[in-house]
Amino acid sequence: MKTYIITGANSGLGLETAEKIVKSGNHVILACRNLEKGQEALEKIRQDSSNGEVTLKQLDLASFKSIHAFVEDLDSLTFHGLDNNAGLSAQHSGLSADGYDIVFQSNYLGHFLLTLLLLP
Hints:
Layout: E1 3-7, H1 12-23, E2 27-32, H2 35-48, E3 53-58, H3 64-74, E4 81-83, H4 102-118
Parallel strand pairs: 1-2, 1-4, 2-3
Helix pairs in contact: 3-4
């Protein structure tokens, strides 16, 4: 069984990707900002497939603190793939807690930091 991390896995392409991977007998970590929506996605995947495993972890790509906590929580877990899927539309505006444009941080800086921290 292989393990994959998918950001923004609570809807859209992220959810579809997670469902396919779990149905193929693998483990998916749903990395979601909103735990309530993430829990709904987790339950949907579990209902639709019993072949693989699915877990939920909170990850807010607009927060460097959240990204560091997410990686620390993985505790050296071996994983086989990362799908940087999460993103905000240009409709969102304002600054993140880290002082960057929230769309730029969520769609670029956050994924860059996550990927960098997960590299061996």
